[in-house]
Amino acid sequence: MKTIYTALIDRLQAKVPAIRWIDLNTGQLEVPFTDNQRPPVTYPCVLIDISIDRATAVTETLQECQGTITLTIADNRPSRTSANTTPAPSLEEYDFIADIYTALQGYTGIEEDFAPLNRTRQERVRSSAGLFLYRMTFTTSFVDLSNQP
Fold this sequence. Notes:
Layout: H1 2-15, E1 21-24, E2 45-57, E3 63-75, H2 92-104, E4 118-125, E5 132-144
Helix pairs in contact: 1-2
């Protein structure tokens, strides 16, 4: 999974320079913060979760894994989204999300370390802190080589 994580960081940094913070998702945005505190990230940010949904033995020491990569995308820029806004509503966040999707859909890593990423879900997440939060989910498969000498 380390290979996937580092490949995602490299790809996002190269293809979406607007991202200012990429990290493993350790709950940075879930902790309740007071008015004087801010989550320990810089916006816009992408937080990454990687999970193995299913593993099948190929040999005694190799497994083929089906994985899910969940990106939490957050931004705190105030934007005008009302249809009554003059000038026209600002929906730059959706361009940002499209850039992330374009960078990752079909991506296989530098040395084809995993099967092409395939987006399976994308959704807005409500935030009591007023953040623009979005969740994007990709699936992939890979052979887990971590048990190899």
